[in-house]
Amino acid sequence: MPRYVGAIDQGTTGTRFMLFDHDGVVVGNAYRKHEQLYPSPGWVEHDPAEIWEKTKAVIERALSRAGVQPEELAAIGVTNQRETTLLWEQDSGRPIQNAIVWQDRRTTERIEQLRENGWEEKIRKKTGLEPDAYFSATKAEWLLENADPIEVEPPRHEDVRERAEKGEILFGTIDTWLIWNLTEEHVTDVTNASRTMLYDIRAGEWDEELLAEFSLPREILPEVRPSSDEETYGTTDPDGFLGAEVPVAGALGDQQAALFGQTCFTPGEAKNTYGTGSFFLMNTGEEAVDSEHGLLTTVAFQRSGEPIQYALEGSIFITGAAIEWLEDVDLIESPAQSEELARSVESTDGVYLVPAFTGLGAPHWDQRARGTIVGMTRGTRKEHLVRATIESIAYQTRDVAEAMAADADVEPEQLRVDGGAVKNNFLCGIQADIVDMEIVRPEVDETTALGAAYAAGLAVGYWEDLEELRENWRIDRTFEPGGDRREIERRYDRWQEAVDRAKGWAVDPDE
């Protein structure tokens, strides 16, 4: 009798496998980091083969630690870093090159060309997205145009595009890559499809006009399925590494998975996930709300036989990664120390740090913005820089919250938060103050994995309905807004000035 649901949470810096029981309680957990590759300035890559090996390792490790047999799994769900793109050979399963990560900026000029050629409004209308190197379309186009020829039998070099047009090369985001390795089925779910800049989110299908613009053969594309799929995507091979036949029945991009795990099933319910970046999503129900303030319209989730549910999203590229940067440059010894140092000073002493290390996402969308520190004096100490970094996370969230309030008829009454950084009580407290909203932290902060588990478990009947999931959601702590509103507003105005100084920096002086 299956007793648990498993969730693969494949993120930007590592892979986690978690086991949940019927109450949504974690009973098993394992995590492994993978290497970050930076072959050129602005380029970020991952080795897909390494990711798959680490995925197998954490599944085996979590099961072993929990004393759970694979046969006890009712289903497996998958959640993943979105937009990260790869191509692989169908026959061998071998990636043709490293995956291009969502943070990668190598196709910035191609995006600028699209804007110059009048594609901006068309892309926004079809996909809900802003044209940006963040998304998968230009990454896939770049791979087809620049990947090295493949050695085939009889011995000769064969062009990647030629093989793609024959259906011998497969395209996918990381969810597709993992599902293919688990089940040998080439599928994705609607949430991940909606992040490719190739998918018409209202029609619910790959868009022929966009495929033509990016010269992407339809043969390489995965089948798009519901996020919680009663037919399942397939099963694991009983003769494979698990030694059991387990349904793979749910998939969600990581931010939609967190929305699902936070049980934001009703329009107006919102969450913010603090990971490498931060991603603020608000459920808008069956209405795909067009944004006029720099947000994305995206697919929230879909259950089998039901309409697509949509969300507004503010994608902030760098938040938790800014704390990692503090550690990289030896301003802190560990992420936990950031809270202690930030509390040790009453303010940033006028210092603002804009962590635009890979450009600015919502609501600014400036690919050429770069990380900037302003307001330093001879008296500036590392404590001020650390506090300014933490405050930048809260300020960026407010930027998105204000855009969301302007776009939507319904405003969230509270913001549910999750991700590694929400363990920082100082961040949660100033977040409530700066955004002027109740911040609610759940007991289970790994809601990304929980959302994937919920999607898979619902598909196979492990959980009956959404209300049953709501009953599992429990609050750890609530942070109420406070502070001097006039002073908060003054500092927020100065933050916006700092952002203006970060914009447009990465310009070739010879151009």
Automatic annotation (TrEMBL):
Sn-glycerol 3-phosphate binds at residues 12, 82-83, 134, 254. Belongs to the FGGY kinase family. Residues 4-261 form the Carbohydrate kinase FGGY N-terminal domain. The keyword Nucleotide-binding applies. Keywords: ATP-binding, Glycerol metabolism, Kinase, Nucleotide-binding, Transferase. It is an enzyme of class 2 (transferase). It holds the Pfam family FGGY_N. GO terms for biological process: glycerol catabolic process; glycerol-3-phosphate metabolic process. Glycerol binds at residues 82-83, 134, 254-255. This is Glycerol kinase. It catalyses: glycerol + ATP = sn-glycerol 3-phosphate + ADP + H(+). Residues 271-459 form the Carbohydrate kinase FGGY C-terminal domain. One of its GO terms (molecular function) is glycerol kinase activity. Key enzyme in the regulation of glycerol uptake and metabolism. Catalyzes the phosphorylation of glycerol to yield sn-glycerol 3-phosphate. The keyword Disulfide bond does not apply. ADP binds at residues 12, 16, 276, 320, 420, 424. CDD domains: ASKHA_NBD_FGGY_GK (cd07769). Pathway: Polyol metabolism; glycerol degradation via glycerol kinase pathway; sn-glycerol 3-phosphate from glycerol: step 1/1. Its EC number is 2.7.1.30. GO terms for cellular component: cytosol. ATP binds at residues 12-13, 276, 320, 420. It comes from the Archaea.
